[in-house]
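Structure ticket #2291
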Amino acid sequence: MCAELLYLPETRRVPPSRRAASHRCRVCPTRQACLAAQSDPQQLAQLSEIFQCVEAVAAGEHLYYAGTPAQVQYHVRSGMVKTYVINAEGDEFVTGFYIPGEIFGHVHVGGCYGESAVALETASVCELSLDAVNDMAEVGLASVLVRQLAANAGIETRHQINLKQTSSQARFAGFCVGMGERLRRLGRSPLHIPTPMSRTDLASYLGMTLESLSRVISKLQAAGVILANRERIEVLQEDTLKTLGIHANV
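Resolution: structure written out below.
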């Protein structure tokens, strides 16, 4: 048993997976953002066997908890997923927000998940069994998986750099610019950033207090740089945000 389990209430359990009876990558609405984008028809058929699709994960439903044995890696198909950790004092720290085409499910050395993952809105994910990773090589897609993992690592590195900025305004601007670029890769507008996460979650992710985040958002709205509500952040002056987020283009 991993140490993280000591901080979980006994009533918290991972819900069972609900796998679709048949999953065909070729009809997936987000296939251009994942491994399927670089697959030929034969590989697509094989991917449908290697990956299992979990449909309709409800908002607030956990996919796994920190400290539970890691069995699968997750690829977001739709919606947004939050990962977080809880320390020994019970404080929650948000570690990531994942959108379609991105991978989550970090495994610690002990073979357990290092963080918990919960859907922020109705979502669906594809599961890649850790035992089936070798099958990716057999269908000629191992290198594609490695590149996708590298892209994820790049997002995390950029976030760590953003956290080094002392200005709360710069951190928030860096987040908006970075998320905008991730949305652009999905063929979506980088100027309309969905925010199914709470303001408290976003503040935690950016390493600031809720009060500081609220002040930054109010200031940028007053300056006409953004327009924000509970559902999304609309970017009105993209160049201004890029200037404010000093390391946004790293």
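Closing remark: The first strand starts at residue 51 and ends at 57.
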